[in-house]
Each structure stands twice: as C-alpha cells, then as structure tokens.
Amino acid sequence: MKSLYAVFLVILLPKSLLAQTTPYRDTPYLQDYSIKYYTPDSTSQLQQVAADRNGVIQVLSSKGLLRPRSGHFQYPGTLEIDRSYRPMSDRKLVGLGLQDRQFVYLDDKAIFSNAWAGKLFDKHTLPDARLFCTGSGAVFLVSDGTRLKLLSESSVIWEGALEQDQVKDIRYEAAKNRFWLLGSHSLSLLDVSTKKLATVFQSPDLTCFDSDQNKVYLGTNDGYLTLDGTTYKSVGGLQKKLPCPNLTAIRVAHGNLWFGSTMGAFMLRKDGKFNYYYGERWLPDNQVTAISEGEDKTVLILTNKGLGEIHFEAMTLQEKALQYEKQVRQRHIRYGFNCDVTVIQQGDLSTAQMGQRDSDNLWTSMYLVSQLFRYKVTGDKVALQNCMESFAAMERLFSITGMSGFFARGFERSGYHKFEAKAWDGGLTNGWNHAKDPEWDWRGTTSSDQTVGQIFTLTLMAELMDGDVKKRAITLIDQLMTNIIKNDWYLIDVDGKPTLWGKWNPSYVNGFAPNVGDRKINSSNIIAFLQAAYHFTRKPIYKEKAYELMNKHGYLENLMRPMSEIGKAPAGSDDWAKMLSEGWNHSDDEMYFLAYWPLYRYAFTPELKEKYREAIRDHWQAERPEKDGLWNLCYAMTGAKAFDLPETVWYLKEFPLDMIEWPIMNSHRKDIELVPENFRGQTTKEVLPPDERPELKHNRNLFKLDRPGKVVSELSAGDSFLLPYWMGRYLGAISAPVNK
C-alpha cells in the first residue's frame, strides 16, 4: 500500500521540476532560539555569568550569586538568589570564574571553591580585589585594578602593577602559560615562567577583550582590533562595520567569536558577516555586560536586566515545521480560521487573544493549502483533519451571508463588534451584519485579496481531493464566478454597491494609467479566476468571458506588462490612483503569486501558458532581492530550472522560532549597506535574515529595518512558514528528513 501511495504522489508532482532540480536534502542544521531569565530586582547590577561542568549556571550580581529559575522557550524565567550553599550568602563576592569547569570565586579575602571538597582557599591580602583569573594547576592572578598578585597555594609568587593604567580584565593562555591583562589604553603580558610583565600594545578607549589560538581580540567604543599573539601587531586594522561598534564584551565561545554591545550581541560567521541578536526575541535587554560558554552549544549573554541563553539545536526543516504546527494549533486557530495575528500583553503568551482579522480567509487559505500539501506528501491524517477543519470555515464564509456566490471576510458570535459607520468602507457598519442565525454576525466589504485566497484554496481542493469535497469546492468556484460575472465584474455587498476592493470591471481596471499596478494585478487575477472556473466546470461562459477581457479590453496586455514599468501614477491622475501607487504594494505580490497557480496551470492554450510563464518569471526577477521562499516556490511551480533554491532554504532556516512581534531596530547598524530611497521600498543592498528583521509576513516589506514601540502580538506560522515549506515538499524541491 505504501509503494502505491508513493507512486500516486510522483504523478501529482510537476514532472519538469522533478526532472530538472536536485532537491535540497533535509539534513539536521543548527537552529537558534533563546530562553530568557529576567531579574526581578531592578537595583541589582549583573556582572558575570558562568556555567560549570554540571550545567549549573550562576550569575554574579551586586547582591550576591543568582541562578536561573523556571525558564522555557517563549516562557521566560527569573534570576533568583542562589541558596545552594548556605555560607555563600555571607561572603562578599566580587569575582566568578572557572577552573577545570568548576566554579571558583573571589571575595575580599581569598580565591576559593566549593569543588574539590572545598580545599581550594588561597588568601590574597588585597582587601579591594575585584578581578581574578585562573591559570594552570593552582596558579591564580588577582588584582584590585592597580596592584597584581600571582598566587599559588596561598603563596604570593609574584606581585606588581600596570604602569599608568588600570586593569580592566584578565585572560589566561594555557598554550604559552601566560596571562593577558587589559587596561583602559594598553594590553600587557605576564609570563608565568619568567615572572615578567610587559606592555605589548597601546590604544585608547579599550573596553573588553579575549584571546584564542594565538590571537587577541580588543574591543573599543568604535569597533574591534585583532592582534597577532606573537608579534602583537594589529591584523587588518580597526573593524568598524559591526551591527553596533560600541563594544562591551568579547568572548570566544564554542569556537565562535561573540561580541556584546550597547545594542545587543552578535556572532562573527565564517563568511565575515554577523548573526545579530537584538531585542527581546533573544535578550532581556540590549545592554550586554558579559558573555560566556554554556552547556553543550549554548551561549550565555548577560544583560542589565537578565540573562539570554542562546540555544543551538540540531533539527531538520520538517522538525522545525512540526514545531510551528503546534504554535498554530495552540494559539492561532479560531473557528477553523488561521488567525494570523494573536494579541498578547507584554510578550506573555498566556494572555493570547484571537479575533476576527481583515483577511481571515486569505491567511486561512494559505494555512489550509499547507496542510493539504502536507497530507498529500506524508499521508498524515492529522494534516487532513486540519485541512478539512479550515475548509469548513472557508465554506461557512459563503453560507453565512445568505447571498449566493458572495462570501464574508469573517464571522463572530453576536454582540462582540460595534456596528459603527466607517468612511473607508463606504459608510457601512465596518462591514458587520447580523446573520439569519441570531447567535452570529458576519463581516462583508469583501475584497480582491480575500477572493484570491478563496480561489487558491478552492482550486487546489478541487484538484487534489476527491468525491464530495471536490464537488463542494467546484460548486463554490462556480457560484463565486457566476456572481462576479452577473454583477458586471464587481463584488456586490449587502447594500447593493460594489465593495471597495472587489472590482475587476474594465472601466475600473483600465481607468488606471498603464503603469499603475492595480491595472496589471486585477487583470492577472480575474483571468486566473476564470481559467480555474472553466477548468473545473467546463462551462463555456468562463472561457468566453476570459477571452473577451483579454482581447477586447486588453487584460492580456495588462497582465503581461513588465514589472519594471510599474510605478507612480502620472501627472493628472486622480487621488485614488495616486494613493494606490505611492510605493510598491507587497500585498499585491502575495495576490499575484497565489493566483499564479490557476493562471499558469489552467492556461487555455500552450501559447498562453508560455506567455504566463514569461510574466511570472519577470515578476519573480523583480522580487529576487527579497529571497522570499514562497515567491521562489510559486515560480518553481512553472517548471523553472533555476528558482533560487539555496535562498529558499536560507529563508526557511533563518525563520525565527519565536514569532512574537518584538520591537526590533536595525537602522543603526554599521554592517549593512543602505541604498537610495526607491519606489520598491528597498532599504539595503541585501535583505536581512528573517530572525533579524521586524517583518515576517509575505505581504509586508521585508526590507523594513525597524519596529519600535511595544510588543502587542504574535504572528502565526501557518501562512508565513508552513505554506512555503510544505509547498517545497509537494513540488519535490525539498526532500523528506535525512537524519544521517
């Protein structure tokens, strides 16, 4: 039975894509996410952090030792007083370090540890000691900022001081048995064997440092320097092109170079660029005070307000998708709809509240189709149940209006929406109407993008499902298109007037100048709708009307117009056209690409199909800088040999597991290349990774750099991630998981 099912799937997949494209092998990669711990005491200064060989994490604060409590992904914990060793609360701790991955402490009297049966207790006789570093064996270097003492088993084996500088930090280099000492404007070396202290480098405004593999990394207020550990000379000069050059911490952790700054943390990648960890998606605060290695591959980032524990977990794209499936099902399913934005308070998911959204059926259609593809690829009955639950909601949008072929934006139990007149919808009561069933209200003012959502769902349900479900989908396609044709290419609302956006009439469409985007998109969409209706019903009227629009009214010419010609309305245009063409409309991109499925697949002739392929390719070329995985895969649907598969995989891997809309800022970054202001709204030469930018939804500007303000919502992964991932699986562009 399993082999027959596999054969059936191959038949469903576009043969051209399978024949020409080597799919991405879905092997495990490292997915990053954060667990955060906030300090409940805002007066406590957080100074150092470390993790021992048992995975225990301790934070040194101005009020003693703290340890994390009850933190989980998206459910932050707190930093609480560490009471594990009762005598520790009476000691005046000023330093925290590790020796053989065991905790070692510094107070005003000694360097000591609770490991090794508590036998380590080296007195230092520096009452104002505040810095220390462990060396090999039982050797320690301790300082009060001015004086230095080298200790071994409570004996002072050397003492001295930096000349005309203050000690800020100390590191030990085991390979050469020497200590590096950072001053405010100097770097010095203490050779343990010869007991000689020498200043080897000088530079103003040094703030932090670390050493690794015969290199020293020096942080400043304006970037960092790399020194050769033998010649002590700078290699490559001052590096300023950083997310934030005002550095507060540097640490080599698990083989990677990490930086803390006044505006978040970042890690240097092998390609010379940075992974940027800014805001509460990653950290309790952006003022970083210390960085340290955690257990396994985790990195501990201490900030003014708490600890961010960055995890790197091996997972496949399918495992990532299944995590998102839980997110959608647990917090974003409302009456079967995919609620694309759930309102939350202060980032607390326990306060999540769903409500009717402007485009319930569009976001739901994208999630529904993801589950349809998932079911067809895996045979998972849970995916089928998810799909059918959402299909029932999409069907009810039609039935609840009581108007054949006219569907609602959404519905809600009665009494939860005010029936207030809004200017934007022509004076209707914000679109809300009472249903025949007094328990329910429904919202009209249905628009073209929701129509795209319905057609996207109904055509794929009609194509990939059988029996009664297929018939129900075809019936709704037929009723919808009959309604639009009967009403002279308009969606007519309950007041007998066209809705604001549901307009495909030639007088409206061709009323725009040729370079105004609405002329092109409305033409492209309606031809796709008519082709789908004809394909499934075989009613001649749909084909006749499509050719009438294409030949008599120029809709074929409209939809074939190159994207390079789309721009602002020319002088003399009305205010409506000027408003619609102020800048690139990213919602239009979503409408185009979803409707490309019926436009291309159900073309009346091979000649038209080739024209459509050309138009789709032209649009895709314009969108390539965004690296949007969904656009790439919609183009792949045409059988394209090259559709930026590596960029698609990058898009999916870089998508954040945490989809709370945290405040995010990037415009301050020195590692990005800005471009001049332009019609498309592209701000940088290269788009930022999804987990570093404020926008994740396909219908938003992915080049937007900043989202200030407060956190008020969590996005659903149902439309943004699950659709491109399962589409990639369905098209054969992404393999099933490969765990070896």
Largest sheet report = 8 strands, mixed
Helix content estimate: 25-40%
In total, how many beta strands?
A: 39
Structural class: alpha+beta
Low-confidence stretches: 1-19
Determine Rg (CA atoms, Å): 31 Å
Q: Kindly estimate the percentage of residues that lie in beta strands according to DSSP.
A: 25-35%
Q: What is the first-to-last residue Cα distance? A: 26 Å
The spatial strand order of the largest sheet comes to: 3-4-5-6-2-28-27-26
Q: Please give the count of helices.
A: 18
Average of per-residue pLDDT values: 94
Shape: elongated
Describe this structure in words.
Keywords: Signal. InterPro entries: WD40/YVTN_repeat-like_dom_sf. Residues 1-19 form the signal peptide. This protein is of the alpha+beta class. Among the domains are: 33-82 and 241-313, no CATH class; 95-213, Methylamine Dehydrogenase, Chain H, CATH 2.130.10; 410-443, no CATH class; 446-626, no CATH class. Helices cover 30% and strands 27% of the residues. Strands 3-4-5-6-2-28-27-26 form an eight-stranded mixed β-sheet. Helix 4 runs antiparallel to helix 5, helix 9 (517-537) packs antiparallel against helix 10 (540-552) and helix 15 runs antiparallel to helix 16 (645-654). The longest helix has 21 residues, at 517-537. It is elongated. 47% of the residues are buried.
